[in-house]
Amino acid sequence: MDPVNLEMLKQAANAARDGDYENARELVSSVLANDEENVRAWLMLARLSESDDEKRMALTTVLNLAPGNERAQKMLNVLDATSMDTSDDIVPGVSRRQFQLLAGGLIGLVLVLLLIVIFVNSRQSTAESNAANTELAFTQSAQRAAAFGTEIAQSTGDAQTQAAAQITQAWLTEITPTPSATFTPSLTPTATPTDTRPSALPPVDLGLTGIIAAWSQETSSQRDNLALVTFPANANGAAQRTLMGELEGKWVSLSPDGQVVLYSVSERSGDEMSMAGVDGSDRRFGINALNAVGASLPETGRFSPDGSQYAFTAQVANGTTELFLMTLPVDLTQLLVPTALPPDQDPPPSPFSAVQLTVDDTGNYSFPSFSPDGSQIVVVREDISEDNPGVDLAIITVGNRTRTVLTNDRNARVESHVTWSPTGNLIVYSAVDEGSETHDLYLVSTDGNILPDPLAPSPADDVYPQYSPDGRYLAFSSNRAADYNIFVVDMSTRELIAQLTDQDRPIFMGDWVDPVSVATPEATTEP
User: Fold this and answer.
1) Per-residue pLDDT of the chain (527 residues; tens, 9 = 90+)
2) Beta 390-397 vs 403-405: how paired, if at all?
3) By the 8 A CB rule, do 29 and 58 touch?
4) Within its chain, how far is the Cα of 348 from the centroid?
5) How far is Cα 146 from Cα 142, in angstroms, rounded to an integer?
6) Which of 178, 230, 425, 468 is least surrounded, with the fewest CB atoms within 10 Å of its CB?
7) Distance in angstroms (rounded) separating the CA atoms of residues 84 and 53
8) Which residues are CB-contacts of 213 (< 8 A; sequence separation ≥ 6)?
């Protein structure tokens, strides 16, 4: 990046941090006047813009310039998901939503009166017509269910390629199939007269253990930062989720003991990394581990399996986003600052320090995930070189900081949202294939063999996969049932078996830990 433009962006970030948004916007606009393809400037403009239309224009420009930019895609997804709930007033004091409810109520009242009249005058003919329509509806539903079942049977019966056979063998060496003896997924829709969304999977007791953390839109005003929540893995997440106090953010990661959460917070000046107790009572905002290494705007991050380290990505002086590793003390709770700290008491000094694992002038890194022993980190790498741009997965060895290419399909398949199995050598990631607009979930072994067919395929957008602590299950977010909710795949069969949440606002999968268990490799089994 041109040094002059880089300096103006730094000044814009400082101005926004001080609340001088007008000056910040002017500086960003000056950068764009000099370099209209500056992705970092367009992202900052999206944060500084006050109107949804301006935000959408800036984010769309980012995605046109850098199709693999996950930060812009996430911001745009949240913006689109909330736009219908925040329309302007139809008349002063009456919002569009209120007007729709009022109009709907009046129309409903008229329809009820009309139905009463029709019922009184033609009771017999109406009953006969309703009976015929009901019979037709059941017949059509049965035909759709049968066709759906046939499609699934055909798709699961296709011959596997050589790559599929290789990765399936790796998969069998670490996971013992344990099909439930009491549950068979049903293809017959359950009648839900008050809900027109696609029917959810039937509730079942899978015996899931541990705690799931997520970020969830609780109010229509929440945009870049959503409410941080937890819920037991064996419970209905929509009914039993617990707010982490008043914490809001994204990219949430839980410590292995489930007591501390590290997460990213979007500010107009950029992202900040914060830490808090899971109840939100004690916290530490703006962790300053980056000051010593000259980085800023920390983004996606993840705890190591033993909780002694935290891997995250952040921007450096040349404008690229690099991978960092932060060493953590044994007891993280001792570092948290009470929310109600007396005004005359200064917070304890920050003990955090970070080292930069990648030095890459042509790459941007995101979504790190540790290997089971913590010695390696799989990460999404966007190559921004002019001669061979594209997005792929890479493995970084912590000890010698070497990079190993894991996938090499460039922009034919844009990878993101990666998670490493806690029991072995398999990695799951979400990706968008060329020509598609939605993510699917794919399985790859650490030696680069990719299962050609996606996990639990559907036309929906499947994102943010996360293994269960024992490696038997995979949770992810998907909009396959109206808005984004959390679903579960059995990794021994690679089939969708449960829907953990069922809410009408988006909720995104963050992390899954079990403080009382440790994952161990499973024995080899026959197919």
Assistant:
1) 666 777 677 777 767 665 677 888 888 898 898 888 888 888 888 878 878 888 888 888 988 887 767 677 777 877 776 554 444 444 444 444 444 445 455 544 544 455 444 444 544 444 444 434 433 433 343 344 334 334 333 433 443 444 445 554 554 454 433 333 332 333 233 333 333 334 455 555 678 899 999 999 887 777 678 999 999 998 766 667 789 988 898 889 999 999 999 998 887 767 778 888 888 877 766 565 555 566 777 778 999 999 999 999 988 888 889 999 988 888 877 777 776 556 566 656 666 778 899 988 789 999 999 999 999 999 999 998 878 889 999 999 999 999 999 999 988 999 999 999 998 889 999 999 998 989 999 999 999 999 889 999 999 999 999 999 999 999 999 999 778 999 999 999 999 998 999 888 899 999 999 987 544 333 332 32
2) antiparallel
3) no
4) 33
5) 6
6) 178
7) 13
8) 228, 229, 230, 252, 253, 254, 261, 278, 510, 511, 512, 513
Nearest to 66 by CA among 379, 461, 395, 414: 414
**DSSP strand pairing (211-216 vs 226-232):** antiparallel
C-alpha dihedral sign at 379, 385, 391, 394 = negative
Domain-by-domain residue ranges, the chain? 165-177+210-341+349-513
What backbone torsions phi and psi does residue 275 show, to the nearest 5 degrees? -135, 145
Six token digits for residue 84: 């219908």
* Side-chain half-sphere CA neighbours of 27 within 13 A: 22
Which residues is 226 bridged to in the sheet?
249
pTM given for the model: 0.65
> Reduced to 3 states, what is the DSSP secondary structure of residue 3?
helix
Nearest to 225 by CA among 244, 251, 243, 245: 251
Q: Give 317's DSSP letter.
A: T
The one-letter amino acid at 129: S
Taking alpha carbons only, the member of 207, 214, 188 closest to residue 199 is: 188
End-to-end CA distance of the chain: 53
* Ramachandran assignment for 163, one of left (phi > 0), alpha (psi -120 to 50 degrees), beta (any other): alpha
CA distance linking residue 230 with residue 260, whole number of Å: 12
Q: φ, ψ for residue 153 (rounded to 5)?
A: -60, -40
Name every residue whose Cβ is closer than 8 Å to that of residue 35 and which is 6 or more positions away in sequence.
Answer: 1, 2, 5, 41
Which CATH entry fits the domain spanning 165-177+210-341+349-513: 1.10.3720.10, 3.40.50.720, 2.120.10.30, 2.40.37.20? 2.120.10.30
Tokens of 500: 């953990």
Closest to 506 in 3D by CA, of 491, 486, 522, 523:
486
The tokens for 216 are 């969830």
**Owner of token pair 């008349």:** 91
* Residue pair 322/359 in contact by the 8 Å Cβ criterion: yes
